[in-house]
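Justification of resources, computational component.

The compute hours requested in this renewal are based largely on the per-chain cost of generating structure records like the one below. Each record pairs the submitted sequence with a full structure-token output. That output is archived, and it is also reused by downstream analysis tasks.
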Amino acid sequence: MIGRIGLLLLVFSIGVLSGALWRDYRCFLNMPIQGPEAGVILDVQKGTSLRALANRMTEQGLLDHPYYFTAMAYLQGDQSRLKAGEYALTSGMTPPEVLARLISGRVVEYSVTLVEGRTFRQALAVIDAHEVFGGANLASLSDEELMSRLGRSGEHPEGRFFPDTYRFPRQTTGMDILKRAMERLDGVLAEEWEQRAPNLPIQTPYEALILASIIEKETALPDERPRIGGVFVRRLQKGMRLQTDPTVIYGMGERFDGNIRRADLREATPYNTYVIDGLPPTPIALVGREAIRAALRPEEGDLLYFVARGDGGHVFSRTLDEHNQAVRRYILNQGP
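The structure output for this chain reads:
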């Protein structure tokens, strides 16, 4: 008799305990995680087990019961669905919401911006300075080594990377960003090449990229790009030299101190379009879509010259006499 009573008491106690545990577990499911109000970044390394992650979250003060979190994942069938990466957790999230975030793959993203008109070496410096890529030291690579690592041996890197804002998770490398920017440039250039105007003095997409880089450096005003593209295209068609200062500056390299002297205009570098005929051998900067479009679909007309007004815009001329008058007014300050 006593044995039966003891068994009943044991069953009853187990039932009471089970009920209490279940109520406690249900309370856990609805209890927001602890932590700073601003939230916390949880880094889930590849291969991290569910149990280890639950223990770490408890050590960090985010959870009170690591075993409840583990049990919840097993009950939902999510115990092996964790995805590596950094996850932003806020103090208002409940454990089910945390688990949903950790299996979603919606990791924290960073961004880096490559700017139109900058050289690829300046772009490398931006990537090297980024918090995620610290120590990448891409700038220490030679042009040849850089392009070889990108699978483009023998190509010059200038102008090969599309300027844009690139978003990425922490596991990304600086070389990954360069590869994305290179492939993006390839796609944009191919799209614009297919829609090029007829009878251009440009034989290849690469020549279009070279011309676009000069347009990119000459103006930051969107409405001027097609007009400047038209000037350069007509000069090429007529066998006139481009005579554009940005190519002189690029050819001077680190010697450029902010001023172009007459001796610089006469210096025979591969990029000095006051000296060479046609296009320089490579682009001189990173190029956006609008500049590429301006090179391939330039504005029609008879303009052959332009000079900077000093306010970011340019004065365009049809004849050399008109151009010289504009130079006297806006460059030499000799009045109208």
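The longest helix spans residues 2-30. The chain has a mean pLDDT of 90.
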